[in-house]
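Summary of Year 1 activities. Much of the first year was spent building the evaluation harness for sequence design. The harness presents a backbone, in tokenized form, and records the residue chosen at every position. We chose the following record to illustrate the format because it has been used consistently in internal testing since the harness was completed.
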């Protein structure tokens, strides 16, 4: 049992994702000003090493900006990003993507483990879900 607990130390496991939990921020986004028409809480403006592309920008949320309970909870820590997985309401067909940077390049013929956490929207009037969400690794933007 003790060998299993010490295995990560021998394997040299490390997290290559910079700012993986969205905890390092430039400033706390005020929750009462967040909307897609107000860029004050956009991911690109608040969180180092992360960007959003294609269509609507992703919104960054942090417990520090809420007075009372936030609308949803993060997986760990206090920061999280809200992205639009799919919008089927015409004329705004859209999908959002986020992009993070690694601390060093990945090496060929090396085994890596990658994971992320997703939570369904708490939209009450018209809840939606999506079956497939993926992660893509690329040497360039």
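For this record, the design step produced the sequence shown next.
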């Amino acid at each position: 049992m003790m060998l299993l607990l010490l295995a990560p130390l021998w394997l040299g496991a490390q997290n290559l994702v910079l700012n993986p939990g969205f905890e390092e921020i430039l400033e706390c986004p005020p929750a009462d000003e967040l909307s897609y028409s107000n860029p004050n809480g956009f991911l690109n403006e608040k969180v180092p090493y992360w960007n959003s592309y294609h269509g609507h920008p992703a919104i960054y949320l942090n417990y520090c900006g809420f007075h009372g309970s936030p609308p949803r909870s993060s997986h760990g820590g206090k920061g999280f990003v809200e992205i639009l997985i799919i919008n089927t309401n015409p004329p705004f067909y859209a999908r959002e993507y986020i992009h993070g940077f690694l601390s060093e390049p990945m090496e060929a013929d090396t085994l890596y483990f990658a994971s992320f956490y997703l939570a369904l929207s708490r939209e009450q009037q018209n809840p939606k879900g999506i079956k497939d969400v993926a992660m893509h690794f690329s040497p360039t933007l």
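Strands lie at 50-53, 59-62, 79-82, 97-100. Quantitative recovery figures across the full test set are reported in Table 2.
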